[in-house]
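Hey team,

Sharing the TatD DNase family protein run so nobody has to redo it. Sequence (258 residues) first:
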Amino acid sequence: MELIDSHCHLDFPEFSNVDQLWQKCRQQHIKHIIIPATEAQYWPRIQALCEQHPGCFWSAGLHPWWVNAQTFSELQDSLSQALNDPNCVAIGECGLDGGKGITELHKQALSWQLEQARDLNKPVILHAHKAHQELLSLLKKFQPLHGVVHGFHGSIELAQSYISLGFLIGIGGGITYPRAQKTRRTVSQLALEHIVLETDAPSMPLYGQQGKANSPLALADINQCLADIRSESPEKIANITSANSRRLFGLDLCDNRA
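Structure output:
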């Protein structure tokens, strides 16, 4: 059985001993982790992490929480160089967050990243929170695109709207919460070919772990929870969702290169 964490902020300060953590991940059949950047100043650190830990890959982007004139300029100046790194497999984390407020600069930064992804045929790691109609409108404008809606929670109809525009659905610890009935129904109905697994560690802890830092080691529990919801084997869930991540991020080519 193979597991892939499609979204884990392994560069965050909560992870003080990445060497030891990565060793534990490999022991738990976690073969790959995708580390999404939040802004350009952290790209060198993430790039070094991936060089030091084969099996880890990263994406270069500007998270909506950190959008300002300076970070947008740094993104524009640095993205092409970042994408020359063979371990940089996507653009993101980018998107819109209605809970934090959306300005024209947020839309400009996202539009620029979507345009680059389309022109370079790179997958997008999309942050989508309380801004789905604005996001869907922008995604339609920059077709064709492909990528993943990270940390998805919502209805089957919303999921299908993103899928129709080329996006997979990123499922994490949110499904372990009994109150997440809508999302649990959605993941029970979606074809597995549209789902990838993620932890979003150190954020998005599992049910019962509220207030604690999440870990990529939680991926096996998320996989088991999805298997229970769908009444399918954890091996099937792991194999298909991992194949989806491999295909989206081109990880087979990366493995062959290594």
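The chain has a mean pLDDT of 96.

Ping me if you want the raw files.
A.
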